[in-house]
Design goal:
There is one protein chain. This protein is an alpha/beta fold. The protein has two domains: about 5-140 and about 330-360, Alpha-Beta Complex (Quinone Oxidoreductase, Chain A, domain 1), CATH 3.90.180; about 155-295, Rossmann fold, CATH 3.40.50. Helix content is about 30%, strand content about 25%. The strands form three sheets. Strands 3, 5, 6, 7, 8, 9, 10, 17 and 18 form a nine-stranded mixed β-sheet that branches. β1 and β2 form a beta hairpin. α3 packs across α4 (about 185-200) and α7 (about 295-305) packs across α8 (about 305-325). It binds NADP nicotinamide-adenine-dinucleotide phosphate.
Length: about 350
């Protein structure tokens, strides 16, 4: 199968199929359209969340599929196969949001030496950040030696950086301890890394028993506790909770344990996508659980600091993270349709935290 698309059943993420696509040369391109091959992409729990929250947030609309099937978005690298009169040059490489499909047809707008925006009609109502494609040149700060890290960590680390800034822009809501769930996830350990490095705050990681050793080995959490041992935490501490797991049972136990000492409860992820039953969050004791929305804080910093300083600070933090992360996690590079399916299944079930994946189609 030379050109194909990997799809999932939108109401049952465990059910998948691989469908043939026509060769890109056989496509009739519309005015201003271009075709990019999808070369490589990263798969982490974040992509599973796109599927879980697909209807709520509109993730299925980026790359529509037939009937009940959906194409889960991934962060990857694509190469222009055919630029038409879009302004893109054949062979140029772009980093951005892709389907797990051999190629993507885009309608480039705002084409510049920085990149372009996909102006395809079906994407216009969706958050602009997902419609931007960055030209991967040295001038734009891309070093091919870090392509894999870019795909795996960059989308997660940007949120991590903004979360760290948000907590400290708000004086950590008066908390002296930050508790992170799914402490073994890349988004959480990125945040723990920044907190440990720059902030005078205790960092507690909550994780599953199987992932305790990994989380402890990172050396960036002051305390590591399994979900089953939440009651062993000091309920007298003032805490801010950053929730990557989205596990309603964990949220409930934590709020009832800390009651009024939980000063911030910030929902970021849903890695425990099968554990969504529990007390209605709004009725829990302590700070009301809210959903974190990174663009609001980014907008604030763009006003406070200006976009240039924001980008500089982010780049500085990213460089620090890149210097350590390869010592923590191995990037595996499977290829081909069978590998796409088996890697997806591994990540859906919960991959080992010390292993991650950059897949080639
Ligand atoms: N809102 C935003 O802007 C934003 C941005 C970035 C990331 N996020 C979210 O943050 C979360 C983490 O993403 P990531 O890519 O960093 O994750 P990741 O590195 O792939 O994390 C994997 C970890 O998640 C838990 N997990 C994964 N699959 C599971 C399963 N099937 N059952 C139970 N636990 C499972 C395990 O952690 P434990 O054993 O430690 O629980 C596992 O080690 C995602 O939900 C993602 O969408 C949100």
């Amino acid at each position: 199968m030379s050109h194909y698309s990997f799809e999932v059943d939108r109401s049952d993420l465990g059910k998948t199929r691989t469908v043939d696509l026509p060769s890109p040369e056989a496509l009739e391109m519309g005015e201003g359209e271009a075709i990019l091959s999808v070369d490589h992409f990263a798969l982490t729990a974040n992509n599973i969340t796109y599927g879980v929250a697909g209807d709520m947030i509109g993730y299925w609309q980026f790359f529509p599929a037939q009937g009940d099937w959906g194409r889960i978005p991934v962060w990857g690298i694509g190469t222009v196969l055919e630029g038409g009169n879009s302004g893109l040059n054949t062979g140029d490489r772009f980093y951005g949001y892709f389907p797990m499909s051999s190629y993507l047809v885009v309608k480039p707008g705002h084409v510049s030496e920085r990149g372009f925006t996909d102006d395809a009609a079906h994407r216009q109502a969706l958050p602009p950040v997902y419609n931007q494609y960055a030209l991967m040149t040295a001038d734009n700060g891309y070093d091919p030696a870090y392509d894999d890290q870019q795909m795996v960590y960059r989308p997660l680390f940007t949120t991590t950086f903004v979360l760290d800034d948000y907590l400290f822009d708000n004086d950590c809501f008066g908390a002296s301890t930050v508790i992170l769930s799914s402490a073994s996830s890349k988004t959480s350990f990125g945040l723990a890394f920044l907190l440990h490095k720059n902030r005078k705050v205790k960092v507690t990681g909550l994780t599953s028993t199987a992932n305790m050793d990994f989380v402890e080995s990172l050396g960036i959490y002051d305390e590591v506790v399994s979900y089953g041992d939440i009651n062993s935490l000091d309920a007298g501490e003032k805490v801010a909770f950053v929730d990557m797991a989205g596990d309603r049972g964990v949220l409930e136990r934590l709020h009832h344990h800390f009651t009024d000492n939980i000063l911030c409860s910030c929902g970021v992820g849903i890695t425990h996508w099968e554990s969504r039953d529990g007390q209605e969050p709004a009725t829990l004791p302590g700070a009301k659980p809210t959903l974190f929305f990174a663009p609001t804080q980014i907008q604030k910093r763009n006003q406070d600091w200006g976009p240039e300083k924001f980008q500089q600070q982010l780049a500085h933090a990213w460089d620090g993270f890149l210097a350590v992360v390869d010592g923590w996690v191995t990037i595996n590079k499977p290829a081909g349709p069978e590998a796409v399916k088996s890697t997806y299944e591994t990540v859906l079930a919960g991959a080992r935290p010390d292993q991650t994946y950059v897949v080639s189609l």
